[in-house]
Amino acid sequence: MNILLVNDDGIDSPFLALLCRAAAARGNRVTVVAPAEQQSAKSHCFTIDRPLCAYPRHVEGAAAAWAVDGTPVDCCRVGLMRLCDQRPDLVLSGINLGYNTGLATFVSGTVGAAREAAFQGVPAIAVSGEPRTPQETLAFFADWAVALGERLIHYPAPELSVCNLNVPPVPLHQLKEPRMCPITRNIYKDNYEQRVSPRGQVYFWLYPEEQDDHPTPGSDLDLLQQGHITCTFLTPDDGCDQQKYADLLTGL
């Protein structure tokens, strides 16, 4: 299988390298096209007013790897249209450094890159986990996500959908079975601290506020807090019945 691997944390992210090794270890041909710099929270932004530079890089397990001075969606588009020798069977986006749950999925560059692949007619998975996740759990999750991708390319998924995966930061022996679920309705809470520079310029620093610890019952964040891997089909249509697709996870 030919896999295009992208992310939003940049080509030097250790989580991207982990997913690349897992995909290659399963006999897949992997092409990496990732941002040259950190590009989180870029959603579906892509570049229209300047050329994009691409630099060859080495990523263990990849048949070819490129760093692009653009957004995650730029990377997906250039990868699909120009940099892959063969049209990919699957696009993997991640592993993101942090959950992509709830309404934050609308902001995520990881999800945005996967969404672009879906719009281009290629099955796509967004893969995310917390930075503090134990390495043994991450390694299992990376292999599991690739195995799911191998199944997804033959699965009747919702049209134009992204398969969104998250793993909880628990030891492997505490990891619970994967669950299909909707996204939580919780909104990530943040704010801006206003300051004034010595030259009188007003500026603002973004900072997180205390979050709501009570996610929507049965949602992605709720199940992650219980120790489950979560899987959600993100679609352009509201109200997708996630349980309709629960058989995708059977036996994995």
- Domain module tally: 1
Task: Please work out how many helical segments DSSP would assign.
Answer: 5
CATH class: Alpha Beta
* CATH topology (level 3) name: Stationary-phase Survival Protein Sure Homolog, Chain: A
Which structural category do the helix and sheet elements fall into?
alpha/beta
Order of neighbouring strands in the sheet with most strands: 3-4-2-1-5-6-7-11-8
Low-confidence stretches: none
Ends apart, CA distance between termini? 19 Å
CATH superfamily: Survival protein SurE-like phosphatase/nucleotidase
Give the overall form. globular
Report the average pLDDT across residues: 96
Oligomeric status of the shown chains? Answer: single chain
Radius of gyration: 18 Å
Largest sheet: 9 strands, mixed
- The share of residues in helices is 10-25%
What is the CATH architecture descriptor? 3-Layer(aba) Sandwich
Indicate the proportion of strand residues. 25-35%
Detailed description of the structure:
- This protein has 252 residues and is α/β, with parallel strands linked by helices.
- It has a single domain (2-184, 214-249), classed as Stationary-phase Survival Protein Sure Homolog, Chain: A (3-Layer(aba) Sandwich), CATH 3.40.1210.10.
- Helices cover 23% and strands 26% of the residues.
- It contains five helices and eleven strands, in the order βαβββαβαβαββββαβ.
- Strands 3-4-2-1-5-6-7-11-8 form a nine-stranded mixed sheet, with helices on both faces. A two-stranded antiparallel sheet has the order 9-10.
- Strand 3 and strand 4 (64-68) form a beta hairpin.
- Helix 1 (14-25) crosses helix 4 (135-152) and helix 2 (72-83) runs parallel beside helix 3.
- The chain is globular.
- The two termini are 19 Å apart.
